[in-house]
Design goal:
Number of domains: 2
Shape: globular
Helix content: 40-55%
Strand order of the largest sheet: 1-2-3-4-6-9
CATH class of the largest domain: Alpha Beta
Order of helices and strands: EEHEHHEEHEEHHEHEHHH
């Protein structure tokens, strides 16, 4: 199927479902995933998105086999890169909270999916890489923008250039993904969605918006936006 979708109780559950290929993102799967995310964002009965994967690995990276076999590999790679950029941009600019659950390997664009979410939880067997194993050694599209913002420039250089594979404990220390209590990713996602939603949803969504805006907004503009948000919060509390 590639990507499955189910929504209930104000929660959209999106699942990568190509385990035989390590849930690698080819062009069709990247586009399918973007469509599922767009569906969740456009659903007024969905407050929070969760992204998980079937199989032993979360996502081993981009699937470039079609590009390698194409008569025009340049065009094929650029099409995949454009699809991934649309997907990561959509997740990054999401008006709704995005939670990610990781097991096994998250490499390349799979790591990009983790970083494009707001909170990620990982199993004890989770590992993380910048270049996919067995690939060209080059990073998948999207990571050069996402990775330094998530863990800092020098750490990103050490991670990428060193060809390192991070274990779950190190990923937790670096803020990439929180090690789920008892390794139970499904429960961690449910608990996080419950804690972030309900009466706390508006404040948490505003916190997300402000933190993301800080990268591309002047300090003065961001301060004004924070003030507007605080006024709205006070007015809403006084009405309740």
């Amino acid at each position: 199927m590639g990507v499955s979708y189910e929504a209930s109780d104000r929660l959209a559950n999106i699942v990568l479902d190509r385990p035989e290929a390590g849930n690698a993102l080819d062009l069709d799967m990247a586009r399918d995933l973007r469509e599922r995310v767009e569906r969740a964002l456009g659903d007024p009965y969905v407050d929070i998105l969760t992204l998980r994967a079937n199989g032993p690995d979360f996502c081993v990276g981009s699937d470039t086999r079609e590009a390698e076999q194409s008569e025009d590999p340049t065009t094929a790679v650029f099409e995949l890169a454009a699809a991934l950029e649309e997907l990561f941009s959509l997740l990054n600019s999401s008006s709704k909270l995005v939670l990610v659950g990781v097991q096994g390997l998250a490499a390349g664009s799979g790591l990009g999916l983790v970083l494009a979410g707001d909170l990620a939880f990982c199993a004890a067997d989770a590992t993380f890489r910048v270049p996919p194993k067995g690939g060209t050694g080059a990073p998948d599209p999207g990571l050069a923008w996402l990775l330094p913002r998530a863990i800092g420039q020098q750490r990103a250089l050490s991670f990428g250039l060193g060809g390192r594979t991070l274990d779950a404990s190190t990923a937790d220390d670096w803020g990439i993904a929180e090690l789920a209590p008892h390794g139970d990713v499904a429960t961690a996602l449910r608990d996080a969605a419950k804690n972030l939603g309900g009466k706390h949803l508006w404040a948490n969504s505003e916190m997300r918006r402000l933190l993301h805006a800080s990268w591309e907004t002047s300090r003065t503009e961001l301060s004004q936006s924070e003030a507007v948000t605080l006024v709205r919060a006070l007015l809403n509390r006084n009405r309740s």
